[in-house]
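Work Package 3 (structural annotation) set out to generate three-dimensional models for the target panel prioritized at the project kickoff. During this period the team completed the workflow that converts sequence records into discrete structure tokens, so that structures can be stored uniformly alongside our sequence database. As a representative example, we reproduce one entry of 317 residues exactly as it appears in the project archive.
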Amino acid sequence: MKVIDLINDKQRTPFSFEVLPPLKGTGTSQLFNTIDRLKEYNPRYINITTHRSEYVYKDLGGGLMQRQRVRRRPGTIAIAAAIQQQYGIPVVPHIVCSGHTREDLEYMLLDLQFLGISDLLVLRGDKAKEESMFKPTGDGPSHAIELIEQINEFNKGRFFDGSDIKCPGEKFTFGVACYPEKHEEAANMESDLAILKEKVRLGAEYAVTQLFYDNEKYFSFVERARKAGIDIPIVPGIKPLTKLNQLSIIPKVFHCDLPEDLYREAVKCKCDEEIKQVGMEWAVEQCKELIAKGAPNLHFYTMSAVDSIGQIAKQIY
């Protein structure tokens, strides 16, 4: 069953979550522990993030440093296959423009097709840490729309160089990202919605939001999207607060506001355990309201929050 069919299943509001591939050399035990912790809540699908390589500096001694490119979290495709094989849960690997040429992306599509994985989340991805603005790698796509166009050509049986695929496999379907509080690089909400609408025109079957803490911003975004003619499911992305330092990090990194009521309770906390409790309580109420008002799916970001998400799911599901 395709992910869009799972999202549209009206028996209950689907539960899904996102995981990160293991850090290079650390093995899969922590990742599988996350899935084992959450599988009792019947996740309908699992997303797997993709991470570009980045520059690091290796100390050679004698005051010399060597600049090297390193991928700290390789293995998205392999991890997707391992999860699907071990758990039988549908997987949705992220495929991103960031750090990849068109040929790189084509080989990823081929590998995924060989493995029978045909659901994707298509993203531009983050800029490199050393860059002030996003730059494509070689001839790689600059925007998610360009990557979608490449995937669509692949689905039609054509490689990126225009040559024919002799034995086309199963076609890919995909979701995309959206931003209730506007993408940081968008000029305004209207231009951001116009980009989302173009992704839908090109075949996006659903959209998953950036994390947010103010449900009204999600509801307002969905209403504006509907008025703009965007009719695909818009899945809310949830990440409970779990650490004190997130009060400053999350608004900065994810460009989202903390509601005043949440912030007022959070700043009273003296340790991570206290804010973890506040975060869980807020997320439970957030999820209950989202379900009551018809959210098509609850999607959780698990990084640093697995235990909290398990407790939230226990109360919701």
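The two ends are 22 Å apart (CA to CA).
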